[in-house]
Design brief:
The chain is built from two helices and 13 strands. By secondary structure, the chain is of the alpha+beta class. Strands 3, 11, 12 and 13 form a four-stranded antiparallel β-sheet that branches. Strands 5, 7, 8 and 9 form a four-stranded antiparallel β-sheet that branches. It starts with a helix and ends in an 11-residue tail after the last strand.
């Protein structure tokens, strides 16, 4: 009888170890640890956002414009508001490390395209980031979505000061829109 309880104890410990290992392999993020790995300079290779990742697996992403209380502003293919960072230089992002956890670069595999609404195809381009990702630019401004924009129409990042510079929505001419933030209620 001593060997039966000993065997049962060993099996219980083994099951607990297997369950613990499985729990560690999936930390609740909904994917394998490799899918959440970070690129060499600290930029998330597949940084998910509340409204979805920045679609790096597609050949192109559309940039459109929507009418808002802030005027006509740029949005990505998922209708998320796009921002520029005053700390960036022409076609060069300076948002790296902790910055990209809040301000997600709009990236594509190949190119971006105009989705209409007044977006000029000639102002769209792609700049290569330090981690090799291809970030969409508009009129030379690298484009980003904001972590705290939870639904289409949110412009919670408008005028935000973080990482030592301001963030602004972008108009169809490719300029920063400095209109003060208003409660848009989302959904453009």
């Amino acid at each position: 009888m001593g060997s039966t309880s000993s065997t049962a104890g060993v099996m219980a410990v083994a099951l607990l170890c297997v369950a613990a290992a499985a729990g560690c392999a999936d930390s609740g993020g909904g994917g394998s640890p490799a899918a959440r790995s970070e690129a060499p300079d600290g930029l998330a290779a597949d940084a998910p956002t509340p409204s979805g990742p920045s679609s790096p697996g597609v050949d192109r992403d559309e940039v459109s414009a929507r009418s808002t209380p802030l005027g006509r502003i740029l949005v990505d293919g998922a209708d998320r508001t796009l921002y520029l960072f005053e700390g960036d230089r022409r076609n060069l992002s300076t948002c790296t490390g902790p910055c990209v956890k809040i301000w997600h670069p709009l990236t594509v595999v190949k190119r971006a395209a105009s989705g209409g609404g007044g977006v000029e195809e000639s102002l769209l381009a792609v700049a290569v980031r330090g981690d090799g990702a291809r970030q969409v630019t508009y009129n030379g401004h690298p484009l980003y979505t904001f972590e705290l924009d939870r639904k289409p129409g949110d412009t919670n990042g408008q005028g935000d000061i973080s990482f030592q510079h301001r963030w602004y929505v972008v108009d169809t001419a490719g300029n920063r829109n400095t209109t003060p933030q208003q409660d848009t209620g989302g959904l453009y």
